[in-house]
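In this notebook, the sequence line spells out the residues, with the fold written below as integer tokens. This is how one looks.
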Amino acid sequence: MVGMDSGLDTRRIVHPTDRIVTGRLIRLLDGYTREVRIGQPVLVAVLAAAAFARLPALLLRSLFSAVGGGTRRRWKELKQGPEYLVTPVRLRNTAGQLCEVELHGHLPQSALHPADHVQLTLRPQRDPELPPRIERIVNLTTGQLLTPRTATLWSHLGPPLLLQAVLGALLLAGVAACSALT
């Protein structure tokens, strides 16, 4: 078994430091989930602005109690960030080194296969112990350009809450402008 390249010999695995790495895909390891961290100051600002936008609706709802309200997510749900899939990827670069990088998000199953010739654009992660993450993949074997997408703070909060926050900020700016003129 000396000549076999199983991709499992962890003594020789390196984390590439170059921004662009070209090589042969060895293996996609089993994925796991990781949580996007949500900064409390940003969350508090968005929720406060959204609450300000909801004030007129709350006043109308108190006058006409028959109007039902929609379901809102609780603070605990919003504070807990969205999860995304992390798949460790092993490849052999053009120098013959076995490298490990991380793929964040999802790709079609048919997008990558062992032995595909790939060019990866990488970005270092905040934690220097983690391998760099893949920003873009050019599968040179199939000619596909692949960009993995993960959940973000903004996709987690969702368009309705963000729209309310923008409306609340505009309403607050309007009230501030009116009070400054008087």
In short: The mean pLDDT is 82. DSSP finds four helices and eight strands in the chain.
